[in-house]
Design a protein that fits this description.
By secondary structure, this protein is α+β, with helices and mostly antiparallel strands. The protein is 25% helix and 24% strand. The protein contains 7 helices and 13 strands. The longest helix has 31 residues, at 31-61.
């Protein structure tokens, strides 16, 4: 057999490059020839990209093509699979369900009152996050866990007029530490439901820098609320649970807004202060992030208050339900 490494470039026969696999050069045994082919492919791609860019410039200057709508890039969001749970505007069935669900009292004017607690022996990071949540949720109070069962805490809080119970859990995260906060349990009192979230990407005000500018300080004003991207029946249920954490009479003088933005089943939580500059004449606002910021992903939704043994689940996350990257539940 011939030692291919001793052959001059071009002496060894190579397979033709398939049209659908131009970037593949692994089949070329000769290293010098392989590099030549790779550079030729790379230059070809660069030329195509440059030609497209020049064509877009010409189209922008052409008056006939100028008014044509721009091509919308394909993303997982706009290619989402349709399903029967996506809400339609003014759905009578949904409106009737809202009038009779567990959050109806809140939307009739009930003032939210929230207990925040944690697992036993909370770490320093969990305590710091609790302090931030006390500023985020108006009318919230911290109570030490003291080894009490969740069901007992929920019953005790419900009897004393509390409307929400928030419990932070800590544990080992991927690439994290066992003392980091990793889950959040939100129970609406006194009848439920109970929402269990995975908690990630926690950043407190001291850790936030946007464009080199540190986060601002939170005030005691009641915030405005923005809920975005909750498009299904399950998403509506989750958004109503978040809404029930905040009073319905925001103080606009504080210019403070809390956002729950749902994208691809992840809920991004942010808090900002806004201002309308005079030169913009009220058309655009400038934002200053206050913090904290964190991300939630729903793991389960239980009917009633939390029960780890005999729970009745409205929805639970299972890997076998993730049949496509374009399928979302919220």
């Amino acid at each position: 057999p011939i030692d291919k490494s001793l052959c001059a470039p071009g002496m060894v026969k190579t397979k033709p490059i398939a049209e659908g696999d131009l970037s593949s050069t692994k089949h070329i045994a000769n290293r010098v020839k392989r590099q030549e082919v790779y550079q030729r492919i790379k230059k070809g791609k660069k030329d195509v990209k440059k030609a497209k860019k020049e064509q877009r410039k010409k189209d922008a200057e052409d008056p006939e093509k100028k008014d044509k709508p721009k091509a919308v890039p394909k993303t997982l969001d706009n290619m989402r699979e349709e399903d029967e749970t996506i809400l339609l505007s003014e759905d009578e069935e949904v409106m009737n369900d809202e009038d009779e669900d567990e959050f109806a009292k809140y939307f009739d004017g009930e003032t939210p009152k929230t207990i925040i607690t944690s697992a036993n022996k909370p770490s320093k990071k969990v305590i710091e996050l609790i302090k931030a949540l006390l500023q985020l949720f108006p009318g919230s109070y911290y109570y030490e866990r003291r080894n009490f069962d969740i069901k007992d805490i929920a019953r005790w809080a419900g009897e004393r007029g509390f409307t929400n119970l928030v419990i932070l859990g800590q544990g080992l995260q991927l690439g994290g530490h066992k003392k980091n906060p990793c889950e959040l349990l939100l129970i609406h009192l006194p009848q439920g439901p109970s929402l269990h979230f995975r908690l990630t990407s926690v950043q407190l005000s001291d850790e936030i820098k946007v464009g080199g500018v540190k986060a601002g300080r939170a005030t005691k004003h009641k915030p405005e609320l923005i809920l975005n991207g909750f498009t299904t029946r399950l998403g509506l249920r989750v958004s109503r649970a978040f809404t029930a954490l905040f009073p319905q009479d925001p103080e606009f003088t504080g210019r403070k807004v809390v956002t729950f933005h749902c994208q691809r089943d992840y809920v991004f939580v942010r808090q900002h202060r806004y201002i309308f500059p005079e030169e913009k004449k009220g058309t655009k606002a400038r934002l200053q992030e206050i913090g904290p910021r964190f991300t939630l992903k729903l793991k389960s939704l239980q009917t009633g208050t939390f029960d780890s043994t005999r729970a009745e689940y409205e929805w639970i996350h299972r890997k076998e339900n993730e049949t496509s990257k374009r399928k979302f539940f919220l």
